[in-house]
Amino acid sequence: MKKVMSLFLVCLFLFAAGSAFAADKTVIRVAHTIAPDSHYNKGLEYLGNLLSEATKGQIEVQIFHSSQLGSERDAIEGVSMGTLEMTLVSSAPLANFTNAFLVFDLPFIIQDRQKAYAWMDGPEGQKILDSVLSKGMVALGIWENGFRMLTNSKKPVAVPEDLNGLKIRLMENPIHVGTFKTLGAYPVPMPFGELFTALQQKTVDGQENPLIIISTSKFAEVQKHLSLTGHFYAPAILLINKAFWEKTLTDEQRKIFIEAELKARHWERNYCIESEKILVDSLKAQGMEVTEPDKAKFFDAVQPVYKEFEEQVGKEAIQKLIDAQK
Ligand code: EAX
User: Fold this and answer.
1) 164-181 b/e with 16+ CB inside 10 Å = b?
2) Which of 97, 103, 250, 261 has the smallest count of CB within 10 Å of its CB?
3) 267 and 43 in contact (C-beta within 8 Å)?
């Protein structure tokens, strides 16, 4: 009986110690809108593993994919207010919060990925990231979503005229919407979480996203035509709540985080570049018809967009990003 009793006490002690330990653990919930096998999810898993290892399990990253916690706009609002710790989003929906990221939304502004990375990771990129500080957020770094390609269920798109009258879903961003208007399409801004159903039910004819999203979101099931336009480059911004970053995390944890984020950022960008190499063939194998569009014609057709948004984006900001890639 005594033996049983002491065993019970030992168990009770271990249980209490275990839960006290668990209470020391800091959980970071991170939301994103795309699939569990997407580049965002893989990059966040990589970051989570680095953080867990370096802090001996003190920090745990919990990933909520597929818009489980709402749209990108919802997630940004959540991180801004502190109801969510972290999110990884395209920079485009940040247009609702600051103008600083708009320069990335101009069509064809990013041509050289490597040079653009260097610029984004340098002081100019930092200035842009700092624009969210006043919104209660810290932008930790610029990851990659990717070059956006056009898909639709109606016809091959080789020249801008082919877009005439097509209903194309876009992110909620004024420059993206303006660009597709200029191209003669009918732009339909909508959160990503509603997109698959909208394509399936043909409320929209097409959409545009990087190949890796077209693939992991299984758009080949509802879209026949893929046009390799690469008209926008979408950076992905890792945002964390400012009070959480400054007050909940310790100095030591923040230091670990900064190092881990840098590693994860490079890892995620490389993962995108590597995946892209096989994705055109893979999407063909899934039944998509692939068109190499006349990019020069698209480039010429969107030039009025630069004039239209020049004031809002800032002439200087535009020129700096272009010059950085020379
Ligand atoms: O950021 O909404 C979109 O099309 C984005 O590419 C997606 O949510 C990932």
Assistant:
1) eebbbbbbbbbbbbbbbe
2) 250
3) yes
Q: How far is the CA of 6 from the centre of ligand 1 (A)?
A: 57
Query: Which residue in this structure is represented by tokens 């940040």?
Result: 94
The set of residues, in sequence order, having a beta carbon less than 8 Å from that of 173 and lying 6+ positions away, is 92, 93, 95, 105, 189
- Ligand 1 atom 9: residue of nearest CA: 90
- Best of 147, 212, 213, 215 for a ligand 1 pocket test (most atoms within 8 Å of beta carbon): 213
Mutate to test the pocket of ligand 1, among 44, 209, 216 (most ligand atoms within 8 A of CB): 209
Report the alpha-carbon distance of residue 261 to residue 269 in Å, rounded: 12
Q: From ligand 1's centre to the CA of 4, what distance in Å? A: 58
Question: Mind listing the pLDDT tens digit for each residue in 194-245?
Answer: 999 999 999 999 999 999 999 999 999 999 999 999 999 999 999 999 999 9
What's the mean pLDDT when you consider all of the chain? 95
User: Do 226 and 209 form a contact (C-beta atoms < 8 A)?
Assistant: no
How long is the chain?
A: 326
For the entire predicted model, the pTM comes to: 0.93
pLDDT for 305 equals 98
For the segment 67-90, what is each residue's pLDDT rounded down to a tens digit? 999 999 999 999 999 999 999 999
Residue-wise pLDDT tens digits, 250-279: 999 999 999 999 999 999 999 999 999 999
Q: What's the confidence (pLDDT) of residue 8?
A: 55
Cα 153 to ligand 1 centre (Å): 19
d(CA 313, CA 299): 19
Residues with CB under 6 A from ligand 1: 33-34, 72, 89-90, 145, 171, 192, 209, 213, 234
Exposure string of 62-79, with b = 16+ CB inside 10 Å and e = fewer, is ebbbbbebbbbbbbbbbb
- 161 burial level (CB within 10 Å; 0-12, 13-18, 19+): exposed
User: At 205, which amino acid appears?
Assistant: D
